[in-house]
Structures are given as C-alpha cells and as structure tokens.
Amino acid sequence: GQRQRVAMGRAIVREPQVFLMDEPLSNLDAKLRVATRTQIAALQRRLGITTVYVTHDQVEAMTMGDRVAVLKDGLLQQVDTPRNLYEKPQNVFVAGFIGSPAMNLLTASVSGGKAMLGNLGIAVPSSAGASVTVGIRPEGLIPASTGFEVAVEVVEELGSDAYVYGKPVDKALKFANTTEELGQVIIRWDPKNPPKAGQTVTVGVNPDVVHLFDATSGARIN
Predict the structure, then answer these.
(1) Is 43 exposed, middle or buried (0-12, 13-18, 19+ CB in 10 A)?
(2) Burial degree of 96 (CB within 10 A; 0-12, 13-18, 19+)
(3) Per the structure, how many domains does the chain have?
(4) How far is Cα 33 from Cα 36, in angstroms, rounded to an integer?
(5) Given 45, 76, 97, which residue is the final one in a domain?
(6) 81 and 108 belong to one structural domain
C-alpha cells in the first residue's frame, strides 16, 4: 500500500484536473486493499478532483464510484449509480456481474401471464415471450410453505449473514448464465437458524425484487 500512497502524493502535488487510476489495488492483500480503498475514496472526496478508476473488482466500483460504467468485451453495457446498477440492471450480464453473491438467473416458461418456477408463478407483462430469464437476488428468496424446492449443498455462516447454496429439486428449472453442473441457487438465510447441508428447503419469492429479462436478447423487461 505504501507505493500506492507515494504515487498518489506525487500526482496530488501537480494539482491535476483529473486522476486516472488503473487497478491500483490489484497487488494488495485483502485486508490492505480494504484499508487503502477507503483512504483513496476519502481523499478523492476531500480534494474534489474527478477520478476515473478502472477495476475488475465490483466491490471497489460499487463502494468508490458516484457513477459506474460496466463494460463487456469493450462494449458499454450500462452507466448508472451503484444503487441503480444493483436494483435496475439493464441486461442479464449486468445483473449477474453486479452483486456478491451473484443474482440467481433462471430460465422460466411463460404460461397464462406467469413465469413458472416449479409451482411458483411470477406475473410477467404481456410483452414477454414464451420464456423469460428470471433474476432474483439471494435476499429476494425467502423460506415459504409453497414455492420451489432446493436441495442444500453448502451453507456459509458469516456471523451477521448466512448463505445457502443448493440445486433446484425440479430438474426442469434451468440456469440462464451457467451450466447445470456449475449452477447453484443462492439464498440469504437467517444466520440464527440456517438449514444443514443435505436438507431440502422450500423458498418463495419477494415479488417486489424480481427482475425479468428477455430470454433471447438478455435485455431487461420493464
């Protein structure tokens, strides 16, 4: 972290109009990266100098940026505030890229104006096709008596949070962004009462936080 501080000091004394930082924290260990990240953010706000910051680390982008540009293969996908990137991703790539753990992205057939996830029906607009990609963040899945079943494989207990990773029991449910072998449903769970690996849990969906995307183009359906 000392080299980064020295480099910033040299840049500051020149009184630039714009800072350009190209992955300045990539070689630091996790603890030092967090400390240096907060120092850079505080310094930038104190100086009030426009800063263009390039990173592959979405946590850095979300915590440091006033506006974030997401690129894939050199193409601009979305420019927005960190909050809007999280709550209103404009396509499947942004939805799956922003957020940790990642958003659950499942392909669902549409029947009677509803996207079906097992026995769970999610209302979709009339503009939706025969199938859609349903995006649900881990906190949007909730324990329920009716919904779709998930076979628990791993439980991560993090103190203030617990995350459940598992496979849909209904083999008709397909993942939109990965293979069936690698795909997992991720659920944020009450850390005081998480399930055990090997159990089967039933989850429902908070309809206010469901994201819908075109199954072909990946574009957001409003």
Answers:
(1) middle
(2) buried
(3) 2
(4) 5
(5) 97
(6) no
Full residue range of the structural domain in which residue 112 is found: 104-214
Angle at the Cα of 143 from the Cα atoms of 98 and 101, rounded to 5 degrees: 20
Exposed (0-12), middle (13-18) or buried (19+): which is 183, by Cβ within 10 Å? Answer: middle
User: What is the CATH classification number for the domain harbouring 115?
Assistant: 2.40.50.140
Query: Are 59 and 88 in a shared domain?
Result: yes
91, amino acid identity: N
Name residue 74's amino acid. Answer: G
In DSSP terms, 203 is beta-bridged to: 143
Strand 50-54, strand 18-22: pairing: parallel
Residue linked to tokens 């990609």: 133
CATH number of the domain enclosing 73: 3.40.50.300
Each residue's pLDDT expressed in tens, for the chain with a length of 222 residues: 677 778 777 887 888 899 998 988 888 888 888 888 898 899 889 989 999 999 999 889 999 999 999 999 999 999 999 999 999 999 999 999 999 899 999 998 888 889 888 888 888 988 888 889 999 999 999 999 888 899 999 999 999 999 999 999 988 888 987 777 778 999 999 999 999 999 999 999 988 899 999 999 999 998
Token output for 205: 């969906």
Boundary-marking domain end, from 41, 62, 97: 97
